[in-house]
Structures are given as structure tokens and as C-alpha cells.
Amino acid sequence: MRPLKNELLVEAWDRGSRQNPLGRALTMLAASTQRSAGDIVALSIPERDLELLRIRRMTFGDAMRGFLPCDSCGASLEFETRVSWLLSRLEAVRSGSDATWQTGNLRFSMRPVNSGDVAAALAESEPRTARRTLLERCTTAHRIDATREEPEPLDLEFDREFEQTAIQKFEEIHQGAEVVFTLLCPSCGKHQKAELDIAQFFWAEVRSAAIALLRDVHELARAYGWSEAAILTMHDARRKAYLEMVRS
Known about the structure:
elongated, 11 helices, 2 domains, single chain, alpha+beta
């Protein structure tokens, strides 16, 4: 695992700028790790976010600070936290095991959702169909038969009882994987809940840092005629020193 610095930062931004939010999360992971594309897609969303937090801390440090508008009056609300706190919290509440339940002679097993499941659900145009796609991809069913040594695998049947139970189990195995802040607006005094989307927050920082770095590249290339590759491979301190001389 490597921090997204210099060439890796620009590469992740360049690829991610042409992708949707799900693709950007996978691109940032791929740029930092040696995992295969299949392994990255197969990571559960809670595990994916933990990986992104670790990369974020390596890249930008432990402090996290952000802003969002108040829903009531539009004033800017600030939140600040630490990656180390988020990591300890998410690692403590995550569930690594599947949920299982039994109805009559049918046994069901559900695993946490991964990026492949989310991509399949996003391809559906109707919310109900998207929800069913998620449940279907994450759940397996077997018929328990005393005459068989192994349970018999079955196709899922989406009756009302199954769907209600599956939704409940889905929420249980992902419980605690969301990060929600309660913020107090200093202008109107209203409380507001805000969910932190780790992948989108990290991407916003990557985009901002990459554009700032490219401005530095542009400035040094104009001053010295150096190539982008040469400037990006410089140590940060050396590049900063040249920038200070150009600007003095």
C-alpha cells in the first residue's frame, strides 16, 4: 500500500475524472495497492472503506476537515475528525461473517455487499429492482433434506416474507459501517445529521491535490522547460524549493 503522491496522485485523478463515484473508489485503491482488479471489486464495502481510510491517512495525514451547507438556513457547517478514530470505530463495529437464517426446511446465507453488487444494482432503472438485485447477489438459499449429506442449492423466490427478512438481515450485517455526524448550525441553532461518504470525501481531496500539483508542474515547466514526468518525479522538498525561487 502506497500513498497517492506525485505520479500516483495524478494518475488516480486522471483516470477517476472519467468515472462515476464507484469507479473512482476502485481506481484510488488500485493506484495504491498491488491487489488485482477482481480482488478489489470483491472487497465488501465496509472493507473497501477501511482500505481507503488507510490510504487517505498515508496520503494526507490523520486530520480530516470538511464543510457542508445547513439544510435549514444554508450557512456553512464545519466538521473535523481524525482518520485514526474512524478506523478504530469501523474496525470495532464491522461484521466479517455472513448472516444466516432458516425458514422451514430452507436455510439462507447473506454476505456483505461488494462493489460488483453495487455496480449491478446501479445498472437497474427501478429502485425496487435494484434492491432485489443486491439481495439476490448477496444471498444464497439451500433446502435442508435429511436424506442428503449436503444441502441442495436453490434459486431465490422473492415472496413478501423472504424480502422483509432479507432486508432486515442486510441492515444488520452493514450496521455500524456508516459514519454519521450530528452538527449544530451556529447561525440558526438547528441540528443536522450528515453522513460521511468516505470514498467521495477522499476523491474530492485527491482531485484538489492533483490540480494543485499540476499547477506547480505548469509553473516549473514554463520557467525551466522541464517535462511533466521530470517534475513529478522530484522529491516534494526539491520541487518546493524551485517553486520558491521562481516566485521570488
